[in-house]
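>> received
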Amino acid sequence: MIKSTNGGTSWTTTRVDTSGEMPGCSWATDCYFGFLGPSAAISVDSAGRVVIAYNAGNSAGAAQRMYTRYSTDNGATWSARQEVSDTNTSVNNGFPALATGTSAQDFRLTWQDDRNGPTTAWNTWYRRSTNGGATWSNAIRLSDLTSGAPYKSSGGYLFPYGDYQEIAVDSTGRNHFIWGEGANYAGPGGTWYTRGQ
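>> returned
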């Protein structure tokens, strides 16, 4: 994490975690090396609590897992990492998006994984914490529409269509999710949206 306390004049860097080299994605047409590599999302609630969500691998070429950590001192120190991904350690996880809710300690997380099949069934998932990232709700599958495009099935979609994913929370506390699904890295693909508490 990089942080500025003087309006961007200078910056400090704090290492939150490390990751092994990401796995390749040779099964997906034109998928470049690094596409499934570590990425992070960060959010700060109204009380100043910071939560980070990120994917990381425990060894070179291992599947990327999804983790969260929180900080109560503006990012100077962090909690131990907490895994929020599926318990199957061979599942690839990526592309986290994180937002705060309408009250302190309310954090909303979404990401994509291939727990239903790496070449046939990626999905977009959601979890929520109401205690500042200390614990998280059970995962809810957002990509539950099983038709409407040739890359969709009852198991999910064939591949993430780019690293385009986001979550926003409106003034009523309702979540708005948007993400990309496709046949493979090169497409064809499309943008999908859902909303809800």
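>> The mean pLDDT is 94.
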